[in-house]
Write a structure and sequence with these properties.
about 375 residues, alpha+beta, three-stranded antiparallel beta sheet, 9 helices, about 20% strand
């Protein structure tokens, strides 16, 4: 039972006609989410402090003069809340119509980012493609930024500030900020320069929280013209020992992008620059497909796996016999699967009885 420690009684409120319990400190939105009662949002990210800027999540509270933002309003004992009625639905539809009127387009490829479909989904849900609002558009895309990872397509920006807040609150980088007001509002870096000249670490957090695709994953977007269904496969990033959960994006047999798992127990939606963007090696044209061994002429020649493994085993054997077991040192690759890393350390520790084993991405 959830109990108010100061009053010694259960905390209860009424949500859409049903009495529910809640914990002290929970917001109306958090209570509704836990009760599987959907409330639409645009500026909300559960990893960030509630902002209350978009006003999509407003609800009616009995006794309140006007609707309140559910993401910033604490639940209180005895509160009576309505999350959906004709007036609220009309309010939300109008807000979405205004958002659509300011942007170049609504529909973007899901390769742009994890949350890139949020606005399009809400617009369709509320039938907000009416076109009844026309006029000035906001946001100006930064086409001169030549960074290789993040597309800054601000013609699609809705000024939800999720990118700015995730950069500050989650990463502590404060690489991007907001300048100007009204239709001139713009997401920018210090002195309105390039991302690679700012404090940006290219973690990709801003990309993955953007609900419109205004910030996009350039490397993944290269695969937009490729045929085939986009699929996600959950796995663990191999680059270091943290164990970040990721979703690999594939089309057919080709890896086209990586997205962080928002429910990953180790990373909670975060990734470093390597985990987010360093996957080109998988299909690189220079990646070896056949073992190479050095011949008597000093050059590398293609060989069978049996020949290559025998040559490697003979080299290890001679090194141990001539120089002792401590002459052998293993360095595992951060680009190899975890099973390969496990086998590598067993090979050194069990095979040679030393702890001379490391990983290139340990730091």
């Amino acid at each position: 039972m959830i109990v108010d420690a100061t009053q010694g009684r259960a905390l209860r409120m009424t949500l859409d006609g049903e009495e529910v319990r809640f914990s002290d400190g929970e917001t109306i939105y958090e209570v509704a989410t836990r009760q599987h009662t959907p409330i639409p949002t645009l500026c909300y990210d559960p990893r960030l402090e509630p902002f209350g800027g978009c006003r999509m999540c407003v609800v009616e509270v009995e006794g309140a003069r006007t609707p309140v933002a559910s993401c910033t309003t604490p639940a209180t004992a005895g509160m009576v809340v309505r999350t959906k009625n004709v007036a609220l639905e009309k309010h939300r539809k109008t807000l979405l119509e205004l958002v659509v009127s300011e942007n170049r387009e609504v529909d973007v490829d899901p390769l742009r980012g994890y949350a890139s479909q949020e606005v399009a989904t809400l617009v369709d849900e509320y039938g907000a493609r009416t076109g009844r609002f026309q006029g000035q558009r906001s946001g100006t895309s930064n086409e001169t930024d030549d960074n290789p990872f993040i597309k800054r397509d601000y013609d699609l920006c809705i000024s939800c500030y999720r990118c700015v807040r995730v950069c500050a609150e989650q990463e502590g980088d404060h690489a991007i900020a907001v300048m100007n007001r009204g239709f001139q509002t713009q997401i920018t870096t210090e002195f309105n320069g390039r991302l690679k000249d700012s404090a940006c670490t290219f973690c990709g957090q801003c990309v993955q929280t953007c609900p419109t695709g205004a910030l996009g994953d350039i490397k993944a977007m290269r695969a937009e013209p490729l045929p085939g269904e986009l699929k996600k496969t959950r796995t663990i990033c191999p680059y270091c020992g943290v164990g970040c959960s990721v979703d690999l994006l594939t089309k057919g047999e080709r890896l086209v992008g990586v997205q962080p798992a928002m429910d990953g127990p180790a990373n909670k939606g975060a990734l470093c620059i390597k985990g987010q963007f360093a996957f080109d090696f998988v299909h690189h044209e220079e990646r070896l497909k056949t073992p190479l061994v050095r011949g008597d002429d000093g050059e590398l020649h293609e060989a069978s796996w049996d020949e290559a493994l025998d040559r490697a085993a003979d080299g290890f054997r001679r090194a141990r016999e001539e120089h002792g077991r401590y002459s052998i040192y293993g360095v595992a690759s951060g680009r190899a699967p975890h099973e390969a890393a496990y086998t590598m350390q067993k090979f050194i520790r069990a095979g040679f009885g030393t702890n001379y084993i490391d990983n290139c991405s340990r730091a």
